[in-house]
Design brief:
single chain, alpha/beta, five-stranded parallel sheet, 10 helices, 10 strands, 17% strand, elongated, binds 3'-deoxy-guanosine-5'-triphosphate, binds magnesium ion, phosphoprotein, Rev_trsase/Diguanyl_cyclase, Diguanylate_Cyclase, diguanylate cyclase activity
């Protein structure tokens, strides 16, 4: 059975082993090969495989060393590795598993067993990836959730001693949203939040930026390396574009359409700022935006 184009990387210094595994798995997977650890690292950097079948005995860098290199990098740490080796002592097997491999298969191997183990580990990796994505995503809007936001904040705001990058932070809150829900119903309110989330997503500059659902109808954007000026510009664009959606509000609301109040704060490079302090500054600015009439940006 074809398991939809899973990419499996085989690393082995012997062409005969590679050919054997190619025949064994080639019908079910997108199999690519590397004859040494260096070329494997190059291939992995281009595109992450879903599984790596790794020989131990190879010249220059052996399988254990390659495994250690992959485990040391956050980007490759979670790639499942199965050792496939002629080294069959319990000590070697223990060493391989303790190095972080998900499995250890000794040569000569039974083809059906290799196929079954590869299949199981790919299934496991897929389930893990799905759970990880769910644990980081807000179900209503598809934006990052609060947990992911705080993890990212923690990684962007390292030790006080460390010279870190500048950071812009935008906090938004929908104006008179209780009234909106009361007038049009909760499902309409949900739809409204989804449309606002679309604006937030579109306002981001690159993969480094993050838009997250901070609370019920509150969103937060993190803009690494942004100056205060740029953060203000982006916040202003978000405010303008939500207003331009022209989602009709109810008569009692302060503005005829759904709008956002926005507080921003920014941290210059090299200056330390605890997460709570940064958020509380943005929150104070947001409070000012509310106090000064709503549908506005304050810092
Ligand atoms: P203000 O302009 O001062 O912000 O007024 P407000 O009515 O928006 O006040 P507040 O920010 O306290 O209101 C939050 C409202 O957001 C209350 C709640 O019903 C609504 N809300 C929070 N989460 C959700 C959600 O997931 N879906 C919907 N439809 N409404 C939500
Ligand atoms: Mg070898
Ligand atoms: Mg609120
Ligand atoms: Mg509100």
């Amino acid at each position: 059975m074809m398991i939809e184009s899973s990419y499996v990387l085989v690393v082995d210094d012997q062409m005969s082993n590679i050919e054997l595994l190619g025949e064994l798995l080639g019908d079910d997977y997108d199999i690519r090969f590397a004859l040494d650890a260096e070329s494997a690292l190059r291939l992995i950097a281009q595109q992450a495989p879903e599984l790596i079948l790794l020989d131990v005995m190879m010249p220059v860098m052996d399988g254990y060393q390659l495994c250690a290199r992959l485990k040391a990098e956050p980007a490759t740490r979670d790639l499942p590795i199965i050792f496939l080796t002629a080294l069959s002592s319990p000590e070697e097997e223990t060493r391989g598993l303790e190095a972080g491999a998900v499995d250890y298969i000794t040569k000569p191997f039974t083809p059906a067993v290799v196929r079954a183990r590869v299949r199981n580990h790919i299934e496991l990796k897929r389930s893990k990836d799905i759970l990880l994505a769910l644990s980081q995503t807000d179900v209503l809007t598809g934006l990052a959730n609060r947990r992911f936001l705080f993890d990212r904040l923690a990684s962007l705001l390292p030790d006080p001693e460390e010279h870190s990058r500048s950071l812009g932070l935008i906090l938004t809150d929908v104006d008179d949203f209780k009234l909106y829900n009361d007038s049009f119903g909760h499902p309409a309110g949900d739809l409204c939040l989804q449309r606002i989330a679309g604006v937030m997503r579109a306002a981001l500059r690159s993969q480094g930026d993050l838009a997250a659902r901070y609370g019920g109808e509150e969103f937060c954007c993190l803009l690494p390396d942004a100056t205060e000026e740029l953060t203000t510009q982006i916040a202003e664009r978000i405010r303008r574009e939500v207003e331009a959606l022209k989602i009709p509000h109810c008569r009692q609301a302060r503005h005829p359409h759904v709008t956002l109040s926005i507080g921003i704060t920014s941290k210059p490079a090299g200056q330390h700022q605890p997460i709570n302090k940064l958020l509380s500054l943005a929150d104070q600015a947001l409070y000012q935006a509310k106090a000064n009439g709503r549908n506005r940006v304050e810092k």
